[in-house]
Specification:
This protein is α/β, with parallel strands linked by helices and 247 residues long. 43% of the residues lie in helices and 15% in strands. It contains seven helices and seven strands. It is globular.
Length: 247
């Protein structure tokens, strides 16, 4: 694979499994050194080992992104070790909850906003200052089709992912003339990554392609948005959903 990210450093949240794992491996294949954050320490050890086998340097951090002080300390330590952060992939989120709006609790709403929205804010703000100082950076926020269409029975998740899309558009306008691109991707049904297989997929009736999107397919879009070829793409939310037909 083309090592076009050689000499670059990427910070990826939610990197221990699923799409985060696929992004980490894809960026490692492209030559980027990695800062990998997640709450799952054992999962981080596995992805670190897999990425380092590809010849890059990888640092892990068990980090609760809903804790601003913890985020700031983690990012500060990573920047001291690597000297910079070129790419930020805001992937960490919670989503597995199905409930009617009238039955949803305030505690549930606060949990979703604390992680999906404020967590994204904390990490972005911590990383963005260094990007502005250096006049270069790529930020890709991972939203969801739920934030675009709104998913029945998932109002808290849909609301938080919609907030991420709106924040992407607003922030991109502030920093585009400072050498920083901010964009968003909204996957539909994403495949699991069993035993590190980022090409795995399942049958799925929700989209016209009839299957889930692979980790590699989703990661490839995220990686493209971090390339110089994508520098004219600003503040966009790109759906990658296989032709979603049931929303």
């Amino acid at each position: 694979m083309d090592k076009k990210f050689s000499g670059k450093v990427a910070l990826i949240t939610g990197a221990a499994a699923g799409l985060g794992y696929a992004v980490a491996v894809t960026f490692a294949e492209m030559g980027a050194d990695l800062i990998l954050l997640d709450m799952n320490g054992e999962g981080l050890k596995a992805v670190k080992a897999d990425c380092e086998r590809l010849g890059v340097k990888a640092k892990t951090g068990v980090c609760d992104i809903s804790n601003e002080a913890e985020v700031c300390a983690t990012v500060e330590a990573a920047e001291k070790e690597f000297g910079k952060i070129d790419f930020l992939i805001n992937n960490a989120a919670v989503w597995r909850n199905y409930s009617l709006f009238v039955e949803s609790t305030t505690e549930l709403w606060k949990k979703y906003f604390d992680i999906n929205v404020f967590g994204t804010v904390y990490v972005t703000r911590a990383v963005l200052r260094g990007m502005i100082e250096r006049g270069y950076g790529k930020i890709v926020n991972v939203s969801s089709v739920a934030g675009h269409y709104g998913n029945e029975g998932m109002a808290p998740y849909s609301a938080t992912k919609g907030a991420v899309i709106a924040m992407t558009a607003a922030l991109s306008k502030e920093v585009v003339n400072q050498g920083i691109n901010v964009n968003c991707v909204s996957p539909g049904t994403v495949s699991p990554v069993p035993d590190g297989d980022i090409d795995f997929y399942n049958d799925a009736k929700l989209c016209r392609l009839g299957r889930t999107g692979t980790g590699r397919e989703n990661a490839a879009l995220i990686a493209f948005l971090c390339t110089d070829e994508a520098r004219y793409i600003v503040g966009q939310n790109i759906l990658i959903d296989g032709g979603r037909k049931m929303v």
